[in-house]
Amino acid sequence: MHHDEPDDRVLASMVAPLVAGGVALGLDPIELTASIGVSADELRDPDALVSYEVPLRLWEALVRSFPAEPLGLRFAQEIDEWAPSSLGVVGYVTRNCRDVRQALELFIRFTPLSFPRMQLRLEELGGQARLLVDHEPRVVALVEPIEVFVATMVRQLPRVNPQIPRPTEVCFRHPRKHPAELYAEVLGAPVRFEAGWSGFAFDAAALELPVSGANPEIGRYLRQHADAMLEAREPVPTEAPLELRVRAVIDGNLLAGTSDQAHVAQALGMSTRSLQRGLQARGTSFAAQLEEVRRSRAQQLLRQPELSVAEVAFMLGYGNPRAFYRSFRRWTGRTPSDYRRDLET
Fold first, then answer.
1. Which CA distances in Å does 343 have to 294, 305, 315, 336, 338?
2. For 5, 11, 214, 244, which has the most beta carbons within 10 A of its beta carbon?
3. How many distinct structural domains can be found in the chain?
4. What is the phi-psi region of residue 222: left when phi exceeds 0, alpha when psi lies from -120 to 50, beta otherwise?
5. pLDDT tens, residue by residue, 49-66
């Protein structure tokens, strides 16, 4: 029996499209969500975190209901845009890298934030690069989750840079499950089955291509933020003061947009009401803890001259710079620009 580990939660934004795909194929949405243990409200909130078992149960239900349907290939075709927000901070990191090599290396490094238990590896040999994917036995046995990941990467990677060529080869460990012509249509490359590995190979020269529209300065901060999130996914000692645990979760989720009270309570395994009462008992509130994290982070970020004030506001979870200006003036008695000027003198 598998049990969720502290880092085994996934974004609801990765589950909702699969539910929509099942509904499009004829499944009842209420029965489907009930069977996998997720609510419609959670699916409507793209920043909500759900148990790792939810997408696994969903894939099992889809494969059981449509054993002959090319679910992975079909769903990959229906993804029209690569939206960084659907991958949380990992999506923003990869879209603000120096080049394709760095984007893939950091995607692999931060995989646990978006795809718990998946293993990715980038190899180079003889002018060819290979991205290899593996997963736990239950996922591998389902086939379709592996196919949708590989197919989506193959189809969406050119969005990082349109000059990235088609793969020289796509490989799967499993036997061919669907018509060969469908794989050729979706993947646009030679496909080999029972190959000993799953993933795709491409010209290694593509690794040196720049990432289109990247902002390297923002990318550097995002990497620090993602590293902090990885560290924060270690179990928080239950004996640690509640306000410290709350601040740790807030700090790790500012950019991903999941630093509100409901998400923080969920991350701590508490109800929102219990969190409120616990903080009140310690003479503080959630709003006070959120402000403390933002104030501390703001002062750190404003020391980085390459970041504009608007970018700092975005990184702190503010909807617009004006709200950040008001908060910063309340905290320090100065505007962010004045604070920066004082640092220079």
1. 19, 10, 21, 11, 9
2. 11
3. 3
4. alpha
5. 778 889 999 999 999 999
